[in-house]
């Protein structure tokens, strides 16, 4: 067996057909659209045109898929977590190992695609918002590789809790700009990036980090991330002989969720579950569960579920994980929810932390706190199922970036030897 | 009073051979009581007032108007206060044009129908929602039209001819030309370019074309008034709130600044 045979080339399973496309204005049902300031309307149209033109060009995909394979390390493994499954005592749990991507999370699937698009459009400069810093790192990484000037907007509060990622971005040559306005978290970083982009759209491309925002970002980000679900679908069939019974992903803006879940959209027997950040519990205000506790609203260029007060002012959110700490959510997930094609779940800070500990000890895999939400809910779901059933969980990122947060919360317990 | 008061305002200014002066303040900045007084003072020197509806996430605004929104919300301003301020402006100034300006979600959260009813009842003439471009007007255009509210649309330096035609078809009242690719309060660009684009837009529409973003001095007002149908001053007025102490001092500064701009328009006529 040659080395290359050990890691089969899954390129052939990637389906480039755009399924369940939004309407021409970017609407998924009553959600989505392009609720942008006039100055951005033409730049957004140019990105849309460039995206569709690129997507139809085999050369674009050849370069993109080559980078995904040889630079990012795709395909990522599908791992049967036998020890965790035994511990949970229900269905077999399979982990889609997006944590093993270069840069440590799924985010790079999208930044590779959009950076290629930016280069195609002749833009020399890229900007991005970031929450946990994973999208910022993934953007700074491709900017370094493509030799593009890079500015990352990040809330002051997130800079504090994700210090290792801030340093990584700086090492990669990016300029990290702290954002102090509003709640100094992800939503404010998006506001600031939009403001900067309005003033610089002539020479600057905005690499939007999640499947939200104005059209074409929700569609485009989804298309760049469906490699996750398309691989997982093929790998499930290869390893178990059939599709999973349930597919589970955490949701902040929704990029890893749409990437994992969308390729199963037409597999009616596969239950699709989105897990939101329950923070301190959904009964209070300290969470980030837009789909479960929000209502339709307009923010950051699209109509979707939004956590807001009765006056339409956007609420501050809370989650242990910066990457889920966002009051909005992608419009396609909102539409899937209303269409009955998505089930909702939530994990609290404590549940996510417990799942983080369990996976680390059972399987030797340290997950990102974001992904730990999907794990927490996925294990709960698996516990109520039969051992011959399967639950697919997207392990969207690795936990290295969360060491500071986890040390603050668990340091004493671990020094004393946790059980 | 005619149902479409804004067009009356522009007709009157045209008769006087001058551009209209349009002033912006955020309602509730720095607090509701002061805001009543400040808007009342501004109203005596401008033809149209844009009443800003404070929003938690003012994505298209620069630091000055962002801070205005934050002050208004921190002091407890509600949308009901915005309508009350509007109603008071209306009753004291029957000929003043009043436009409610802000972001989509404030109106969306209330429901466009309720929002339009309340806006009209308060005496507003038009609504300018920054993040509802003509393409997304399906959610509100018919409702605003049914209530006799003008829907003010924006154009910018990035707007193509196709988009200018779209704004001409879908917009009413006037067209607001954002003179720079940037956020509110930025430095104004070169006057030649602004004049050229404004004239181009004017050649494609019969609606009044007003120019704003970055207009701060009476000289700039006079320069823009030489070719535009209206001049919008926003951040400069808002910045008076932090550069003077006490409501009376702020009101005096606003009054004298607006007066100087009004005179600049009149003398340039």
Mean pLDDT across the residues of chain A is: 94
Number of H- or I-type helical stretches of chain B: 12
**Shape verdict of chain A:** globular
Strand fraction of chain A equals 15-25%
User: Uncertain spans of chain A, ≥5 residues at pLDDT below 50?
Assistant: 1-6
CATH architecture classification of chain B: Alpha-Beta Barrel
Distance between the termini of chain B: 27 Å
What is the domain total for the residues of chain B?
1
Query: Which overall shape of chain B is indicated by the principal axes computed on the Cα atoms?
Result: globular
Q: Name the CATH superfamily classification of chain B.
A: Aldolase class I
For the record, what CATH class of chain B applies? Alpha Beta
Number of strands of chain A: 14
**Which structural category do the helix and sheet elements of chain A fall into?**
alpha/beta
Q: What's the count of strands of chain B?
A: 9
**Which bin fits the share of residues in helices of chain A?**
40-55%
Estimate what percentage of residues of chain B fall within beta strands.
5-15%
Query: Helices and strands of chain B: which structural class?
Result: alpha/beta
Low-pLDDT sequence parts of chain B: none
CA distance, first residue to last residue of chain A: 42 Å
Oligomeric state of this protein: heterodimer
């Amino acid at each position: 067996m040659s080395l290359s045979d050990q890691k089969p080339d899954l390129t052939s399973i990637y389906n480039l057909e755009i399924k369940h496309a939004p309407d021409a204005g970017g609407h998924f049902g009553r959600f989505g659209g392009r609720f942008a300031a006039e100055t951005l309307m033409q730049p957004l149209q140019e990105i849309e045109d460039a995206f569709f033109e690129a997507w139809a060009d085999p050369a674009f995909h050849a370069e993109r898929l080559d980078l995904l394979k040889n630079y990012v390390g795709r395909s990522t493994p599908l791992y049967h977590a036998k020890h965790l499954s035994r511990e949970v005592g229900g269905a077999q749990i399979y982990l889609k190992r997006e944590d093993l991507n270069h840069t440590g999370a799924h985010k790079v699937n999208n930044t590779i695609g959009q950076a290629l698009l930016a280069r195609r459009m002749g833009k020399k400069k890229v900007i991005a918002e970031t929450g946990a810093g994973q999208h910022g790192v993934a953007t700074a990484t491709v900017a370094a590789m493509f030799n593009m000037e890079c500015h990352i907007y990040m809330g002051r509060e997130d800079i504090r809790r994700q210090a290792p990622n801030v340093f990584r971005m700086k090492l990669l040559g990016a300029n990290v700009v702290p954002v102090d306005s509003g709640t100094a978290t992800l939503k404010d970083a998006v506001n600031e990036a939009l403001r900067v982009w309005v003033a610089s759209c002539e020479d600057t491309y905005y690499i939007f980090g999640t499947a939200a925002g104005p059209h074409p970002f929700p569609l485009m980000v989804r298309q760049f991330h469906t490699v996750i679900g398309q691989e997982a679908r093929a790998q499930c069939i290869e390893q178990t002989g059939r599709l999973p019974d349930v597919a589970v992903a955490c949701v902040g803006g929704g990029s890893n969720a749409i990437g994992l879940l969308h390729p199963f959209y037409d597999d009616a027997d596969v239950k699709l579950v989105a897990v939101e950040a329950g923070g301190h519990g959904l009964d209070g205000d300290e969470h980030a569960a837009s789909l479960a506790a929000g209502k339709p609203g307009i923010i950051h260029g699209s109509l979707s579920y939004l956590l807001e007060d009765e006056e339409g002012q956007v609420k501050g959110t809370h989650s242990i994980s910066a990457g889920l700490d966002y009051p909005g959510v992608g419009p396609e997930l909102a539409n899937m929810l209303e269409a009955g094609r998505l089930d909702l779940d939530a994990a609290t800070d404590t549940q996510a932390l417990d799942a983080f500990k369990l996976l680390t000890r059972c399987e030797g895999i340290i997950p990102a706190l974001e992904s730990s939400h999907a794990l927490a809910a996925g294990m709960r779901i698996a516990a109520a199922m039969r051992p011959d059933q399967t639950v697919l969980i997207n392990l969207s990122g690795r936990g290295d970036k969360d060491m500071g947060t986890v040390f603050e919360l668990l340091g004493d317990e671990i020094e004393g030897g946790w059980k | 009073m005619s149902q479409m008061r804004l067009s009356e305002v522009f007709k009157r200014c045209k008769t006087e051979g001058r551009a209209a002066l349009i002033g912006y303040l955020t309602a509730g900045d720095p607090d509701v009581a002061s805001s009543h007084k400040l808007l009342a003072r501004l109203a005596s020197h401008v033809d149209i007032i844009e009443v800003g509806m404070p929003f938690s996430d003012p994505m298209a605004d620069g630091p000055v108007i962002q801070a205005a929104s934050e002050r208004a919300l921190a002091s407890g301003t509600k949308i009901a206060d915005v309508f009350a301020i509007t109603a008071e402006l209306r009753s004291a100034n029957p000929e003043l044009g009043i436009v409610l300006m802000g972001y989509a979600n404030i109106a969306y959260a209330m429901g466009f129908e309720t929002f339009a009813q309340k806006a009209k009842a308060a005496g507003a003439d038009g609504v300018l929602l920054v993040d509802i471009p003509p393409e997304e007007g399906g959610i509100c255009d018919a409702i605003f039209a049914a209530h006799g509210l003008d829907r003010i649309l924006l154009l910018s330096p990035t707007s193509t001819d196709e988009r200018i035609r779209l704004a001409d078809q879908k917009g009413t009242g006037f067209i607001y030309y954002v003179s720079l690719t940037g956020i509110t309060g930025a430095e104004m660009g070169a006057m030649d370019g602004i004049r050229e684009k404004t004239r181009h837009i004017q050649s494609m529409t019969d609606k009044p074309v007003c120019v704003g973003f970055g207009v701060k001095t009476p000289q700039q007002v006079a320069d823009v008034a030489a070719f535009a149908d209206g001049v919008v001053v926003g951040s400069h007025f808002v910045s008076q709130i932090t550069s003077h102490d006490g409501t009376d001092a702020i009101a005096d500064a606003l009054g004298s600044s607006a007066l100087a701009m009004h005179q600049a328009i009149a003398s340039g006529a």
